[in-house]
Amino acid sequence: MEAIAKAHTNIALIKYWGKRDESLFLPMNSSLSITLDQFYTTTAVQFCSCLNQDLFILNGNLADDAETTKISKFLDRIRELKGEKIYAIVNSNNEVPTAAGFASSASGYAALAAAATKSIGLDLDKKELSRIARQGSGSACRSIYGGYVEWEMGEKTDGSDSYAKPVMDGQEWDLSILSVLVGSKQKKVLSREGMKRTVETSPFYPGWLDTVEKDLNLAKQAIQQRDFDLLGNVVEANALKMHATTLGANPPFMYWQSGTIEVMEHVQELREAGIPAYFTIDAGPNVKVICQQKDEAAVRQALLNVKAVQDVYLCHSGPGVTYLPV
Ligand SMILES: O=C(O)C[C@@](O)(CF)CCOP(=O)(O)OP(=O)(O)O
User: Fold this and answer.
1) pLDDT digit string (tens) for 21-37?
2) How confident is the model at residue 172 (pLDDT cuts 50, 70, 90)?
3) Is 325 a member of any domain?
4) What is the pTM for the complete model shown?
5) Which residues line ligand 1 (CB under 6 A)?
6) Residue 279's domain spans which residues?
7) 26-27 and 163-166 as β-strands: parallel, antiparallel, unpaired?
8) What is the mean pLDDT of residues 48-64?
9) Do 197 and 115 share a domain, yes or no?
10) Are residue 297 and residue 233 in the same domain, yes or no?
11) Are 132 and 244 in the same domain?
12) Of 75, 247, 267, 315, which has the fewest CB atoms closer than 10 Å, so is most exposed?
């Protein structure tokens, strides 16, 4: 039968940075994110014994072999779970403007995990869906839930205890997240390669591990207490520490460009002007700025005035994965 699922992208407030197991996508540390209301992937899956291979249609076009192979490898895990050798047509549409500085892998694998398991006849709960989505892309395990989400790293070697769960206290604390596009034509080091190289070669990586758990606990305390400055300070410091590790890698690399730093400086100037705003940055030059909703218009205007800024996308907290009518 056909199944359709929709999943939204998420922004890490406390970063997932480094794997302890590359094949099972097991992380070196737990992380915390907020799922966004903008930017999502809708995926339809239909398994059929009439097919002799998987077909993958992405944004209306037949995907290339490399993409299709990645999807097939992911579907193999679902076929194995079901114990059935059957192929599928996967039709995925990303409402995630790649140019907006968002990777679509988190929403993409969360939607695929939900639609594919439903279509093959597996009726899984969100914990099991999160475990499966994790094996497509680590951060995808967090997009199964809405709002504030913690991905528990787990300790077991089989990954059975590595999945996401909602941070219950945060549900109605609706902050504003502004995605600031400073653009980048250069081929960046993709997060998968970036974290691998950092774990393997950066002398600063152990320092990252020394403090990330404390950051996570502080962030959860801030959410529980609705303490925006506590959250903002720990989120900004955590992002800076993650990026510091890349400078010590061999060969070293840096995700920031001049526009990135310009935005960082403007965010700190906003705070000096009495408007609490904080930044976080992932595996690219674009910046995500968090602020309280009462300040979102002023913060958005200030960011649009920064010379290097090409666009600003305003987001709020969004929902977890849902099934759409076929
Ligand atoms: O999102 C975060 O926690 C932090 C990052 O965005 C920082 F860049 C990494 C996301 O890594 P992802 O794309 O999930 O890697 P995969 O497991 O190798 O597919």
Assistant:
1) 999 999 999 999 999 99
2) confident
3) no
4) 0.96
5) 12, 15-17, 25, 31, 103, 105, 137-139, 191-192, 282-283
6) 173-315
7) unpaired
8) 94
9) no
10) yes
11) no
12) 247
